[in-house]
Specification:
270 residues, alpha/beta, 6-stranded parallel beta sheet, 12 helices, globular, hydrolase activity, HAD_sf
Length: 270
Amino acid sequence: MTDTTEETPPDLLRGRDIRAFLFDLDGVLTPTAEVHMHAWARLFTPYLESHGAAPYVEQDYFDHIDGKPRFDGVRDLLASRGIELEPGTPDADPADDTVWGLGNRKNTVFNDTITEEGVAAYPASLAFLEAVIADGYEVAVVSSSKNAPAVLAAAGIADRFEIVVDGNVAAGLGLPGKPAPDTYIHAAKALGLTVLECAVVEDAVSGVQSGARGAFGLVIGVDRGVGRKVLQDAGADVVVEELDELIDAVARDTEQNDEITDAVNHKESK
């Protein structure tokens, strides 16, 4: 199990009735956040240079893009440089000089990278996922990416999740993206649970803000470089470097599992 620089409270769930974990995908379950980061850099480095704007730097990803739907990320990054483009349409050609065109250009780079290099889940995150499933918790994925199903399949973990709320689902239902809490709330409802019964697991500031704004029962931040304090300030109840640090803190005993099963069966029989 990963060493932690700040001890995880053993009573993390005291006073909380957590029955499900809602996971972000990129940067939480899989290292695809890094692939996204490189794809965005490959898009914006030459683009901003050609427009005489301030150069693209890694911090731009965290400040303007991380965790947001693709369209919002492009729009917000361009706005930070005083650049305004026509929005275009979701099916815009990647060569189009529109917000959607740029977003689709980045998506082509991302998909090519996943196809060529593949992707594997973080070992510590996979261990945590398997542990909470074995303990009887419900699980779901809530991702801004429209590539979530492909990434889950490539990582070999698609079969763990019956509920996947991704960018396609959000667009189809007209749900605003993170930091709005709507996609997480939709996942909770799909599981038949309240927000107080769900824990949000996020690595992005916008995602942590989603959990906090939605008043979820627990918001877990995974620090992949954003910074512990930044995630805490955004609303995380606890911040870890790797999710396996929390396995013992969220473990249920056999009696608890029996109680949860009885409660679910009673609820379904009504």
